[in-house]
User: What shape does this take?
Amino acid sequence: PGKYAWTIYLDVIVLEGQGNILDAVSLAAYAALRTAALPGVDAISGGLDSANNPIEDFELSSTDILDAKPLPVQNLPICITLNRIGNFVVVDTAAEEEAEGGVQARLTVAVDETGHICGLYKGAGGGFPVGEMHTLAQHAVPIAKKVLEGLKAAIGLTDKKEKKGIEKGSSKLRCEAGTWRRDACVGE
Assistant: This one.
């Protein structure tokens, strides 16, 4: 323990933007990280290198999904974007609403799973009065909780599964040439 670590890369490719892109990307990243699983591995000795240092390598201990461990992540944030359109503040805007001149000001609030605000991003050209920014950020918290509730249900996370880990039939994960890939989640 403590000698080796996994490196996780998360690339998001936006194929088409229909508005509210930061929120959509944060939800995709959240779902990817919360449903990721790490395969079991064993360290194996590989002899010595040219400087007589031991070479260690790894091999999969199992390709069975039941042996995979959920990625140990917690309190991941998602983004909730509040847009000023005229005299209204709108959440989850469409591309048409964001079109030229539609959004006068934008505030994206990052809220973690415990309801804590962990980031703010001010976008678009206009602004919000300082006191209003605080109020808007606080309004984003219950919205984020509701969105997270729906997202967790959509990706099959419940309190029971979060504590227990992956259950047989909850997803399709396979190992091909040492690379773990997740297929579309399908109930069996």
Q: What stands out?
A: The chain is about 25% helix and 30% strand.
